[in-house]
Every structure is written in C-alpha cells, then in structure tokens.
TrEMBL record:
Top-rank taxon: Bacteria
Gene3D superfamilies: 3.10.450.50
Naturally occurring in which organism (per UniProt): Acaryochloris marina (strain MBIC 11017)
GO BP annotation list: polyketide metabolic process
Official protein name in the record: SnoaL-like polyketide cyclase
UniProt xrefs under SUPFAM superfamilies: NTF2-like
Pfam families: SnoaL (PF07366)
C-alpha cells in the first residue's frame, strides 16, 4: 500500500472513533495488532487496546481529533495534534464533570495491507487530570503563600 493510502486509512480510523463508530474503527485493526502506550507496563493486544479505548469512548463524548501534523512514510503514519471531548461519563472512578477537555496527543501507526498492526500512543495525561480537577495546580496568587509557609518551616528547623 502507498503512504497516501495508509495515511487515509489511519485518518479514517480516528474519524470512526470520533463519529462513535467504534466497530468500524476496530475492524481496521489487524488480528495480530499490538499497542505500545505510554504509562502501560507492557504492550496491549487488540482486546486490551479495545478495553483501553472503550474507557475513553464511554467517558468522553463529543470527541474530535484535530491533527496539526500528519506524516506518512511507506508503512507508518505519524499524527500529532489534540483530542477534544466532553467528560460526560465515569473515568477511572471519577464521576462526570461535564468539562470540555483538550488533550495533546501523538500517535505512530504501522500498517500492513491496509490494516493497523502496531500503534504507539502518547497523550498528556497530567494535563487531562488537571483539566478534570484531579491534580492540584497552584495559581499565581497562591504561590507567595506557599513560599512563605515553606520558608517558615525551614526557619523553624534551624531555630530549634
């Protein structure tokens, strides 16, 4: 298959996911599919990848991948961009927040005979958690207070 054909297939895969046509997306995966995901201790087979994807699929609706860069070589397609969605379902124990999120993503998909056989994926998990309100991030007004408390603790140690 040509690089252009592979690029089209990969973009169809993400469009099917975005259009909530999960069965159509999963049909594009080869039987021997393997996914390498950042933060996962080992590669995922097709079933484990489906479970991983379904976690996002059910938790985030109104999803849309927006790729700023798509690079296709003979058998690989690299996509860099953002994933936009609304958090309307439970996600890793967190009840729906109704928040619109934007997640930076980078993917490499390798194809054989028009099927995706290998996937490497990375998303900004910390940014996602911050947007959902899980990770505390001090604002500019709080930084001086945090510094003052930290310095007073250090001074107390030395004065004792």
């Amino acid at each position: 298959m040509s690089a252009n054909h592979n690029q089209q297939r990969v973009l169809e895969f993400y469009a099917a996911f975005d259009n909530r046509q999960i069965d159509q997306a999963l049909e594009m995966l080869a039987p021997n599919f393997v996914a390498h995901m950042v933060g996962m201790p080992e590669p995922l087979n097709a079933e484990a990848f489906k479970a991983f994807g379904m976690n996002f699929y059910t938790a985030f609706t109104n999803s849309h991948h927006q790729f700023e860069q798509v690079i296709a070589t003979n058998d690989q397609v690299i996509t860099c961009g953002t994933f936009h969605a609304t958090h309307l379902g439970e996600f890793q124990g967190l009840p729906p927040t109704g928040k619109r999120v934007k997640l930076d993503v980078m993917h490499i998909d390798r194809l054989e005979q028009g099927e995706i056989v290998e996937h490497w994926g990375q998303g900004d998990a910390l940014g996602l958690m911050q947007q959902l309100g899980i990770v505390f991030l001090p604002g500019p007004k709080l930084v001086p207070t945090l510094l003052k408390v930290g310095i007073s603790k250090v001074l107390k140690r030395f004065s004792s």
